[in-house]
Amino acid sequence: MIRLLLLMAVFSSAVPAFADPEYEVVRDWPALPEGKSLGLCAGVGIDSHDNVLVFHRNGRAWSNPFPTEPIAGPTVSLIDGRTGKLLASWGAGEFIMPHGLTVDHEDNVWLTDVGRQQVFKYSHDGRLLLTLGERGKPGADKEHFNYPTDVTVLSDGSFYVSDGYRNTRVVKFNPAGQYEFEWGTKGSGPGQFNLPHGIAIDGGGRVVVCDRSNARLQVFDPRGGFIAEWKGPEIGRPYGVSVDAHGHVFAIDGGDQLKGKLDRSKAVELDAAGAVVNTFGSFGAGPGQFQLGHDIAVAHDGSVYVAEGKGQRVQKFIRRSSGDREGGGAASPSPR
Ligand SMILES: [Zn+2]
After folding, report:
1. Burial code of 105-140, b = ≥16 C-beta within 10 A, e = fewer?
2. Domains in the chain: ranges and CATH
3. CA–centroid distance, residue 194 to ligand 1 (Å)
4. Based on CB atoms within 10 Å of each CB, which residue in 129, 150, 275, 304 is the most buried?
């Protein structure tokens, strides 16, 4: 009980805010057609042209059990990273409960569906290339998942799956989708997990996992050997993670949802050693704020995109030009 109170005290105390965040929201992005709503935005990724792919639920709500019929409308949207225009939509009639989205170095799109208990590789324009797991059948062996959350792909085409809401492991597969190895058991020790919810690799092959319910990021070598854990009030409860070309790690804190109530949500940037160098955004529905930030992606041009659960949107952030910091200006995030 005392530990719980201490934990609550840590998380409810004022989050150390960077008074002058280095990122500002782009207010007119995206520029979707009038009346177009994506629904809950679960996953976000960036292709080689810095366009943005979003995996969204198109009106479907989380339920227990999940419905058995797929979402009728499109669930994957391709949005121009610069103009915010909707370029393409696909993924209609396929998915039960969209979750993770990852774009690999060949612009293939990897999706996880926690309702179908499967992991998918699609071409950029929506052709199904590979399916892992058995539809609707949970499991913890080499051919099954239990609410798989996310994927990260190496340059050789092999990949890791974070699995998931009910399993507590990371599984490595070869490029053909054959099981190689896995690590992780349930717990809070080094290399253990409690809801591995997002996964990314850096340029050196280190694997960064959002260990969501343990409120930490864990870093592993390519074979799953534990390297470090990064945690604290600035990091919060990481839901999604992305690594830029300089090895900086971007994570989205989705909040604690104590007693089911939505609370704190913010983005955090760490250097390759795990030191927090920026936080930006706060809980709320205003520009630059988040309600249940669920995934984050950093583009080659340095733009950062955050997908929101309850907020049902994707927002774009850009780094302020250094001469612009003092003035604030119309585009600075304003809490409200
Ligand atoms: Zn989730």
Report:
1. eebbbbbbbbbbbbbbbbebebeeeeebbeeeebee
2. 26-321 (2.120.10.30)
3. 13
4. 150
